[in-house]
Design goal:
The structure holds three protein chains of three kinds.
Chain A lengths: L1 H30 L7 H19 L2 H25 L4 H24 L4 E3 L8 E2 L8 H7 L2 E2 H19 L1 H11 L1 H6 L4 H27 L2 E3 L6 H11 L4 H22 L5 H4 L2 H19 L1
Antiparallel strand pairs in A: 1-4, 2-3
Helix pairs in contact in A: 1-5, 1-6, 1-9, 1-10, 1-11, 2-3, 2-4, 2-9, 2-10, 3-4, 3-9, 6-7, 6-11, 7-9, 10-13
Chain B lengths: L2 E10 L3 E11 L4 E5 L6 H8 L7 E6 L2 E3 L4 H6 L2 E4 L11 H6 L5 E2 L2 E2 L1 H14 L15 H14 L4 E5 L7 H16 L3 E6 L2 H7 L2 E6 L2 E7 L6 H9 L17 E11 L6 E11 L2 E6 L6 H9 L6 E6 L2 E2 L5 H4 L3 E4 L3 H5 L6 H5 L10 E2 L2 E2 L1 H14 L16 H13 L5 E5 L7 H16 L3 E5 L3 H7 L2 E6 L2 E6 L6 H9 L4
Parallel strand pairs in B: 3-10, 3-11, 6-9, 9-10, 15-22, 15-23, 18-21, 21-22
Antiparallel strand pairs in B: 1-2, 1-4, 4-5, 7-8, 11-12, 13-14, 13-16, 16-17, 19-20, 23-24
Helix pairs in contact in B: 14-15
Chain C lengths: L3 H24 L4 H12 L3 H26 L7 H18 L4 H30 L3 H21 L23 E2 L2 E2 H19 L1 H11 L1 H6 L4 H26 L13 H11 L4 H24 L6 H37 L1
Antiparallel strand pairs in C: 1-2
Helix pairs in contact in C: 1-13, 2-12, 3-7, 3-10, 3-11, 3-12, 4-5, 4-6, 4-10, 4-11, 5-6, 5-10, 7-8, 7-10, 7-12, 8-10, 11-12, 11-13, 12-13
Classes of the chains: A mainly alpha, B alpha/beta, C mainly alpha.
Chain lengths: 296, 502, 348
Amino acid sequence: MGAIVVQLLHAALSSATPIALAALGGMFSYHANVFNIAMEGMMLMGAYYAVYGAYRFGHWLYGVLFALLSGLILAGIFSLLAIVLKVDEFITGIGINMLALGWTTYSLRATFQVKGAFISQTIPPIPRVRLPVVEKIPFLGAVLSSHPFLVFVAVLAAFVCHVVLYQTKFGLRLRATGEEPAAVASVGLSIGRLKFWSAVLCGIFSALAGVYLSLGYVTLFSENMSNGRGWISLAIIILVRGRPVPIMLMSLAFGLLENLGMLLQRYDVPPQFTAMLPYVATLFVLYSYARRLKTS
Amino acid sequence: MLVEMIDICKVYPPNVVALKHVDFSLERGEIHALVGENGAGKSTLMKILSGLIRPSFGEIRVNGQRVQINSPVVAARLGIGMVHQELALVGSLRVYENVVLGSEPSRFGLLQPQKSSQMVKQLAERFGLNVDVDAITQELSVAGRQKVEILKQLYRNVDILILDEPTAALTPQESEELFDEMFKLRERGKTIVFVSHKLDEVLKISDRITVLRKGEKIATVKNDGSISAAQLAEMMVGKRIELVSIKARRPAGDPVLVVKDLSLVDRTSGKKLLDGVNLTVHAGEVVGIAGVEGNGQNELIEVLIGLRKPTSGSIKIMGEDVTNLDPRQRRAFIAYVPQDRKNVGLALKATIMENLIMTHHMNPPLRRKWLLDKSVAKDFASRLIKDFEIVCRGPFEKVQNLSGGNQQKVVVAREISLNRQLILLDQPTRGLDVASTQYLRDQVLMLRDSSKAVLLVSADLDELMDLSDRIYVMRSGRIVAELDPRTVDKTVVGYHMLGVSA
Amino acid sequence: MNHVRPILQTILAIVFAFLVAAIFILLHRSSPFEVYGALYQYGLGSWFSFSNTLNAAFPLILTGLSASIAFMSGVVNLGQHGQFLWGALVCAVLGVYLRLPSWLAVPLLAILGGLAGAAWAGLAAFFKRRYRMDEFISTLMLNFLAEYMTLYLATYPFLDPKAYVPATRLIRPEYFMTGVFGVNVAFFVAFFMVFLCWWFAWRTWQGYEARMMGYNKLFATVGGCDVESDTTLILLFSGFLSGLAGALLILNGTQHRFTKGIGANFGWDGVMIAIMANNGVFQTFFYALFMGFLKNGAVGMEFETSVPSEFVMFLQSIIVLTLVGTRSGIASLTDWLRAKRELGKLVK
């Protein structure tokens, strides 16, 4: 039984990582009061270009590099439309998600000549990190050790984001932009620029989430592989009102749930039902959020 | 000359001409009043000077040097800062955070809260502004928040302080305190622009006065006793308009609205937003609600119209208990002119007709079972446009193309033509020019004379005193006084609003 | 003038979008002329192509209307996909087991499919009304649930043992809907729904309330509209349209059965169509035809050139983004130009 629990927690941490990364990215937009729902697309694009870069140039670092570039480009398109041309943010977000889906599906076919998924032994995954001391601690060591390094980046990022948001100039201005743009404008700061940076951060984090999906969690790219994780991260952001550390904790809860499904499969529950768990959980999250609003 | 603005023009896209060839100048150490009615271009001119918007044409000189003021940062560098009418503060931040926002003391990007707080505290002491710099900003009163705005500018070391309608939401006593602070600032060498349309205040405190009308400068005069309020008013409006005072009233009739022990508790904070409110409005009277903004007036209106459910208490309209009815059902009794016409009173992107038939659409002849009768709707809208003199190109024009006054007329036309017994008016004249204000006041008195019950909430004490038969004063969610405007003075109302004894 | 300008804007934006896409075709080392030529040839070139375009468009018209009607009322129903799937599944399953004369069964199956979609949307409406859960995320999540649930049903209880992928059995052949001159009857049903939607939105009393709610919800609430009931009604109606799309695809498509991955992107296509159409009913019809043209032409494009049909998915999104961007850009540009002209008059 102990072994199963260890396995479960290990897998939960792993599944939580892409959701947490995307949510931390979206958090910046949340605080800048940008209704950014493009995490799904940015993640998908990141996942594709991670595989592309790593496969083409033979090193995972190229994967990260290409993914980040793709995230920045999408953030740029988002800013161009939503901030410069003042298109509705929601519409822009949907457009970007569609763009990512269309482009990756097309590129998959055009570049790798495959439909559905690209799998190859020669895609170099991101390295796994063994924690020298922690590893020796009986239970904890097994849960925490030998994860792809992005898992630790995600955990660390939650704390760094907390500091950035609440203890830096940038964070103060960002929160001010979200709450009272007039205050920010009245002291001569550019609201557009702050929103732009929030989009850029969202692009970076979501792309990293994508890298983790296609080079960490598994080592392949398949069509629409983000599979709603961007939307789940959005629900989490809304639920915890954009606080970084709770975002991490909620993501962990989702990770746990996703893997609980795999546990259930041992008891002959059809996979279609266990696969639903994260989405049911998201509905539940929404329910508890609405309930809290109602009673408070 | 400290500042010269020469031949300034401003056109807002697409085609709103806000300023036409305006000249304006400031001398060091003066209090310069800028007067004009709503829409005259006062705020636009000052926003140009403070770098928030750019002029379409014209030039600005500071100390004789020609300058381009592209942003508030440049303005601050030139020593110019503005306190806006809608205070631009972040409510959840602390006072000192609001003050330092944009030029925060920091090390490697990390904030230094102690240092910031200390600096702001010293600044406040130096200029004699009494405010708790560590408080959460949204917990301060309007007057308090205004001080924060002034501090914000002083922190940026400005020499020229522009105050845009600073007394609009203040009680008479708070206004006095503000004037004292302005004099103190002048003593310390600051130059102040006082934007206002309250002529008595302008005459009381300013050294020079510039009058704007419809985007044009009419005159700049020295305030040395040679000019009277009446003369200023004539310059402002162009022709003499006397705002009507209350006319002979008939005795009030039966009670229409009876509110008993109405309370509303905020579930998160446990704060009592409304606390045992009792009030009655009779047929044929106008009852005013006075109070410093944020003392429960908005909540009272929301509870009356049915947007929020009261925690306890009852509301009766014409003898019927409506406490548990939703807005749809209550509208059978109530006509309502909301404070925020753009977000509550109108659908800006819809046509005038669609806006005019709202609420009317629930009943025949507009509604025919499943359908909405388009030809009836069109006739109805055309009639209201004519009766209420709404200036527009026809019933199918979008409301967003109308001027503020005409938009308000759309709301008022719709609500009055509902012919309800109770009429709620929430800041009905805010942001309107004199002609529209006059129009609205006439409408209110006509309603009263046709035996309607009118409840009027207003931040404008003069308006309340002029129109109301009785005035309730609200403070901290409670009705603290019931006054007769014919027997008490404006300052007495102010004392009750503030909670200090006369 | 008032009607000409948006049309000109649209044409300009579409041309611009095709130019942007041409760059990507060049990057793919193909000739944009050939690619667009093939698109045209197979999408509009002959009556056969054109009728195929209409046939490709009918589900898009319906999911597009589903999104437009919802968005115009300020109801963010993004659950077209799930509602579509339930409509398709219910129709496919009942089409196997129901035994009725076909003149009765076919309309019944279509309506039942629509009702299934409405019921699935009704779940979101229930969540909204009872628990105040935002429909935006709940409909999205319900998409995933619908996908897995219908897949389960097609994989286990209703599986056709002879099929290679999870699929239900063929519906009874007498229920297959036919066409007129090669145009599916389903297209005419969709066309009728366009008029029904227009009539609802612009002639009925609840359509008025719904539109006002879309402009400004608070205004509608204070004005006495029953926003809760209106929202529920809109969600049900919107779900019905998507469900109908699914059912008609079973009855009048090519497969006549529910398979894994059926109607892959009709839901999001509908959302994109509504966005391009600015939620207008007739515009939705037009853009759905346009999308149908692209989809239908894509087959030919792949056949004639080296560009894979997936390129059209990308092309669609590029068109959406350039269209909304250009529209918004032109609007601020014309405002700016008008301001310039006004100033010119002033300082002459």
